[in-house]
Amino acid sequence: MSLKNTKTWSRVLVPVLLLCCVSYYYSHFFLQRSGAQHDGTPRERRERDRHQLRERRKTAKPEQNSERAFSKALCDSWNISQKWERLNFNVSRNAQLFLKLEDFFWRRYLSTLALPYGVKGSELFLMKALAAMASYDMPETIKHLPCKTCMVVGNGFAIKNTSLGSAINKYDIVIRLNDAPVRGYEADVGNKTTMRLFYPESASYNPSIHNDPDTLMVLVPFKQQDVRWLKEILYNEKRIRKGFWKPPPEIWLGKTSHIRILDPYFLQQTASRLLRLPLNTPPKTNQIPAHPTTGILAIYVALNYCDVIHIAGFGYPESKDLKHPIHYYGYDTMKSMKNSYHNLSHEVKALKRLEDSGAVVYLHPHS
Ligand SMILES: *[C@@H]1O[C@H](CO)[C@@H](O)[C@H](O)[C@H]1NC(C)=O
Ligand SMILES: *[C@@H]1O[C@H](CO)[C@@H](O)[C@H](O)[C@H]1NC(C)=O
Ligand SMILES: *[C@@H]1O[C@H](CO)[C@@H](O)[C@H](O)[C@H]1NC(C)=O
Ligand SMILES: *[C@@H]1O[C@H](CO)[C@@H](O)[C@H](O)[C@H]1NC(C)=O
Ligand SMILES: *[C@@H]1O[C@H](CO)[C@@H](O)[C@H](O)[C@H]1NC(C)=O
C-alpha cells in the first residue's frame, strides 16, 4: 500500500474506531443501568422512594431522629429567601453536582473551556471513567430531604481545640477536603463525612481509613491528567506518572460505587462569579493562573445544594510568622502556601462577603 493510501485509510479508520468506542461505552453503560434497575415508571419510582423514606424514618435510630430535629430547627430559624436575595448569585439549590455519562450523549456536553473550568478536550477520558462508575447522584436519603443543612469542614488550624466534633456530626451533609484526617481528631472535627472533595495529588490511598463507609469521594478534575488517573485506577491500566506536581497514589482503594466527578461548572462559577478571577490568562505570559482552592469551591458547591450552610476550619493564621501551622493536622506552615496556585487574600475577602451577607455562618470565632 502506498503512503497516500495509508493516509486515506487512517482518515476513515480513525472516526470509525472512535464511533465503535463510543457505542461500546454507551452499551456498557446501558446494560449496567437496565441490569441494575428494572423499576417501572418515574412515578412508581417516586412512590417507592417515598415509601422507603417513610420506612427508614420508622426504623431510624434515636440519634438519627435527634439529627432530624436539629436539622429542622436550623431550617426553621434560617430565613432562606432573604439570604438568597442578598447574594444575587443566580444559583439553583438542589443542583446536579456530578457529571453523568448521559450528559455526553443526549445533551451533548458543550464546553468551550478546558479543565479545570470545562470538559473540552477531556471528553473521552471522562466518558470512559464515567462508564465504569455506578451512580452519578447523591444518596437517596439526602436527595429527598425537604431542607438540607450542610457543614463544610475546612482544614484550617482554627478548628483545633474547638471541641466542635459532636456539633459537626449533626448536620445532614458534612463536606471535607482532600486528605484531611478524621481519626484521632474526632473531638474537634467530628467523624461524619458525607462527601470529600479531592484531586489526585491530595488523595489518600485508602479513603476508608478516615471516612465512613458511605462517604462519596468526589474528584475535582483540575487537569486532563486527573481524569486519566481516575480512568487508570478504574480500569486497572498502566499508570502514567507524568503531569502531576506531586505523585498521586498508584493504588487507590476507594469504592467504585462511591466515586463521583464534580461538574467543572462549579469551579468555573466559583472562579468567575464568587472570586471574579479571569478564566484565561493572556497567552504567552508566564503567570500561573490562580485557581480557587478546594475549600472555597466546597462552599460554593454547598451554596448550590444546601439550604443552611455552616462552616468551620476556614481562615488562615493572623500571625505573620511563616512557621505558623496552617492545618489542624500535620506540619504544613504558611510558608508552603506562598507559591501555590491560589490567591488566598482574594478568597478571604470573598468568604467575608458571604459571611456578611449571612449566607454562611462560622461555628467558631475567627479572625
Ligand atoms: C424572610 O425574608 C423575606 C425577604 O426579606 C421576608 O419577606 C420575610 O418576611 C422573612 N420571613 C421571616 C419569617 O422573617
Ligand atoms: C441565571 O440562571 C438562568 C437559568 O439557569 C439563566 O438562564 C440566566 O442566564 C442566568 N442569569 C445570569 C445573570 O447568569
Ligand atoms: C490545645 O489543647 C492542648 C491541651 O489542652 C494544648 O496543649 C494546646 O496548646 C492547645 N492548642 C491550641 C492551638 O490552643
Ligand atoms: C463516630 O463516633 C461515634 C461515637 O464515638 C460512633 O458511635 C460512630 O460509629 C462513629 N461514626 C463513624 C462513621 O465512624
Ligand atoms: C490577588 O488578589 C488581589 C485582589 O484581591 C489582587 O490585588 C492581587 O494582585 C492578586 N494576586 C495575584 C498573585 O494574582
From TrEMBL:
It is found in: Golgi apparatus membrane; Golgi apparatus, Golgi stack membrane. It catalyses: a neolactoside nLc4Cer + CMP-N-acetyl-beta-neuraminate = a neolactoside IV(3)-alpha-NeuAc-nLc4Cer + CMP + H(+); a neolactoside nLc4Cer(d18:1(4E)) + CMP-N-acetyl-beta-neuraminate = a neolactoside IV(3)-alpha-NeuAc-nLc4Cer(d18:1(4E)) + CMP + H(+); a ganglioside GT1c (d18:1(4E)) + CMP-N-acetyl-beta-neuraminate = a ganglioside GQ1c (d18:1(4E)) + CMP + H(+); a ganglioside GA1 (d18:1(4E)) + CMP-N-acetyl-beta-neuraminate = a ganglioside GM1b (d18:1(4E)) + CMP + H(+). Pathway: Protein modification; protein glycosylation. GO terms for biological process: glycolipid biosynthetic process. It is a single-pass type II membrane protein. The chain crosses the membrane at residues 12-31. The keyword NAD does not apply. Residues 36-68 are annotated as: Disordered. Its EC number is 2.4.3.2, 2.4.3.4, 2.4.3.6. Keywords: Disulfide bond, Glycoprotein, Glycosyltransferase, Golgi apparatus, Lipid metabolism, Membrane, Signal-anchor, Transferase, Transmembrane, Transmembrane helix. It comes from the Eukaryota. It is an enzyme of class 2 (transferase). The keyword Glycosyltransferase applies. One of its GO terms (molecular function) is beta-galactoside (CMP) alpha-2,3-sialyltransferase activity. Disulfide bonds join C150-C306. Residues 40-52 have a biased composition (Basic and acidic residues). InterPro entries: Glyco_trans_29, Glycosyltransferase_29, GT29-like_sf, Sialyl_trans. One of its GO terms (cellular component) is Golgi cisterna membrane. Belongs to the glycosyltransferase 29 family. This is CMP-N-acetylneuraminate-beta-galactosamide-alpha-2,3-sialyltransferase 4. It comes from Oncorhynchus tshawytscha.
